[in-house]
Amino acid sequence: MATSHRNPANLRVVLESPSGTRSYVVTPFSVLDPAEYAKTGFYIDLTSTNAFLDERAQGVWTLEVTDMTEPRTTAALQNFKLRILGH
To answer: Vertex 64, ends 59 and 70: CA angle to 5°?
Structure first.
């Protein structure tokens, strides 16, 4: 996930599966240093999770990004990729 948000530590990121299961993949008020991302933008690899164990991958997945301190802040979600592995 990459965003132009000026203070990524304020972001909460929730991934929702087609069946409605929600997983908080980035929690707000973390130790992310905004100065580190000021020039290059914020980028994070969303790590693996077992929250969606035994669910089907087919369907619409939703990524919800919320600024928990400044809801009127304008920023862009530059991109995100979702790679699903299973057996």
So the answer is: 170
